[in-house]
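pinging the channel bc i need a second pair of eyes. not urgent but kinda urgent?? the chain im working w is below, pasted from the shared doc
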Amino acid sequence: MRMKKRFLALLLSLAMVFSLQPLAAYAEDDVNASNETTEMQVDTQEETPNENIIESNNEQPPVETPAPETETPVTETETPPQTSEQPSASVNEETQTKAKSSMILKKAPTYTLHYDANGGVGAPLDCKGTRDGSWVRYPLSEIEPTRYGYVFFGWTKVRNDKSVSWKAVGPGAIIHFDSSQQNVTLYAYWKEDINHNNKADDEEAKYTVTYTDGVGGVAFKDQVTTDLLSGLDTPSFKGTPSRSGYIFDGWDAKVADKVTGNATYTAKWKQIHEWHYEAEGNVVKAICPLNECMYKDKWPQLILSAENMEYTGKAYNRASITKNEIANITGAAAGAISYEGRDGTIYTQSKTAPTNVGKYAAKVTIGGKTAVANFEITKLTASANVKFAADLTYNGQNQNLVLNATTTGGTLMYRLSDTDEWKAGLVMLTGKDAGDYHIQYYVKAKANYADSEVQTATVTIQPYAVRVFGIRVKDKTYDGTTDATLDYSHVTVSIIDGKKPTVTATGTFADKNAGTDKMVHISNITLSGDAAKNYKLAESGNQDSATANILRKDVTVTINPNGGTYGNVKPATASLNGVVSGDDVSTTLSYSGNTNNGTTIQNTTNAPTEAGSYRVNAGLAGKDMGNYKLTGSTEEKIDVLRADPKLNVTAIPEKKYGDENFKLEVSRKGEGALSYTSSNTNILTVDEKGNVTLHKAGSAKITVKLAKTDNYLGDTKTVDVKVKKVSGHLEVTTLSYVKTYGDAPFQIVDAISTTGTISYKSSNKDVVTVSKDGTVTIHNKGLATITVSVPEGDNHTPVSKKINITVEPKAITVKAKDASKIYGDSDPELTYEVLNDGLVGNDTLKGIKVEREKGEDVKPGGYTIFVDDESSIIQSIRNLFGANQNENYRITYKPGVFTINPKDISDAKVTLGDSLTYNGRKQTQTIAKVEVDGIEVPADAYMVTGNIAKNAGTYTLTIIANEGGNFTGTREVSYTIAKGNAKVTKSTKPGQNNTPKTGESTQTFLWLSVMFVSICGLAGIILVSKKTRYKDRFTE
């Protein structure tokens, strides 16, 4: 209480102190400082501007400099007025100053704009405002304060109020406030910039960083950090990633130091393995028995490679381990590569590589298993460097063909043809005759070398050059070419060994035309024969010309008179026989003769066009005609025949009885006369103008004849005319009937015909039959077609219509009759009944099967009695052979209920358990067996009451069947507890008779009471001690 009193006294003292502090008073001209408002306005001449507008010096007149503050002289006894920066000393002093104000001119008010950096630094200095009427104009500073972790967003009148802010957009900006606000403070408005990029955080993109285990959350749930700014530190994973059976192996991708965008980092895992190794050929595999081993689709391997190589005389160096994933993944180390001979090559296993030719195996062991790679050092092919002779010319002597030769790995062998024997001594080979010497050679190898391939070199001895003279030319008949035949009987050749070769050459006339002493050019002189192989023609100095005659060539002409028919005459053509292909030589043709009307033509070059008989004569023309003489016949006969008049009678489309008469459409060339006849005037007739009159149905031919003229032949055409019968008349309105098996007969009454008698026929008499008058009788369910027909007439075709009859099966319901029995009895015979209006006539149902749900226990609601037809297999067989027994009915089967009633146990035979004798305790009479009508009642099917007693005597127990079971009712049975033998036994041992004496019970009670009181007392002492010790913590 003392502390409370002290605290209240302190509060009262403070209140008194604060209540005694005077309020500063400011002497202002026409301004009541205690009532000044906070209203802001933008300075305009007449309108009140919006307070958010910042004026620029470009939009308003220059800011005026305020006039200096003045005051009137003051007497020595007067006290100067106090400004807002000089608070009065006391209330009494303020009162005295006001009392003397009648003798003082009041000072003009000043207006100050103060900038508050609001947590930042570098705010502009205060500035003075200029009053303009009811507004005060302040220059808005361009200086912007700074604040670590924030971006400056302008100035507000209310601290941290972001709804209204100002910011200078250039020099000379002006802000206006109501003149009632003598001093105005603007607060810097900041937006947070925690990533220090000079952008407000709420205007920047936000990013998300996710850590995921890569296995669907098995190892850990995704750790997701949202709303992250670019440039901030990337958040770390919380905790340590762990996964059963794996070791964490870092992140994919690498975690960036700073946030640059959305990022997902997926854990990488290394599985903990139990490796064993298997070798197959040159591969050793590391295999892990774990079911989920990450390598089970591709086990780590070591692959040993060994390439074959040719013998070099140096140690083999082509074996290497080309892949060793095992070392990186399992840590097992591979041994050094060793070598061993194989397949007959003797080489004891060694780490030293072999040198000689043979078959070997390279081996390397890792994890106790050895990879084996076979390789072979093959023989090196022997080689030779041979220099052959060049620039040899025939001189009648033997000359060396090889200049020198060197070999590696064997002996140089050669031969000159495929049939020669190989022999050594190539450098001694010589040749005499001019020609090509094809020399085959190879190196026969020594040990570790293979024979070189056979190579062929050609050494040439050039023939000796000679000159040819004395060639003559034979005369020829014109053949259209400049070819000339040469005569070599007087030729001379400049040979050196007395063996003269045969000379041939090409002769060419200066032109192809016939003439005498024509110049012939000689070229392509060649030498042949046995002696020619050693010689060749000299490049200059040989004979190159001679002269001969070309005689004119005899030719014959073949005239094809052609001719033709009037209007289609083909002029005669002529071909020259024996003319050289390509020569400009042709025939001229002229015509003479008489037309069919008697006109004569003579030697005209135009082919005749009118029909008649003529002759055609041929001659030569063309620039090459001077090279030929025309011999043999030069005249042929030509005829122009009468033309086909193209008589055409348009085919007559098939007509129908009753169609209108028509006129034949006939076309022809020329003016020949036309006539018409009919082959059957009963069917139709035709007049001299081709008009056709139809009389009845049937077929006839019309013959059209055309007479011949001077230029056209006569002709005859026939045209077939068929007059079809028209369809008979038959109308049937109803073309489909749907009936039900058992319906009464019905009649087809809407069939009408005007062209004959109507008849009826059923397609399926097992389903329906139809009488002559159209009465339809139903026999079975199914489909049938009734054909309604009218027979054919003279001018009418038969007609029929089909009526589809569908007889659907009759719907009936077959229900299993309800039945019942007593539990344990045999089932009665199960039967069924047909509901609705029953079966048709004397029909009966076949193959109906009635059976009940299996079970012999009493069941609430009973068992279902099922009724159905035969099994689907049997019924399918019957349908296959068309023997569906109940096909005329669509049967709905309805089950019945089979009730098993519980068996009454009131007359049950009961066998009791062991007999009972009094023993001083309650005893239970057991039931050994309950049996009714030979059926034993299970012990869990009943309950027993009245079977517990203590004293000797006769009692009645009741066996009650459990409700809802297979049995019902009750059965009473008497049982006896026999008298026991009296005997006194003193209990001296623990556990036989431990009933406490009265004194012992009392002592126990007293002892427990003392213990209780002691415990309560101790608890009280502790509580009192606690309260005394911690009394300040308790309340009364």
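so Residues 1-9, 11-105, 984-1004, 1021-1036 have pLDDT under 50 and may be disordered. and Residues 648-724 form a domain with the Immunoglobulin-like fold (CATH 2.60.40.1080). — does that match what u expected or am i reading it wrong
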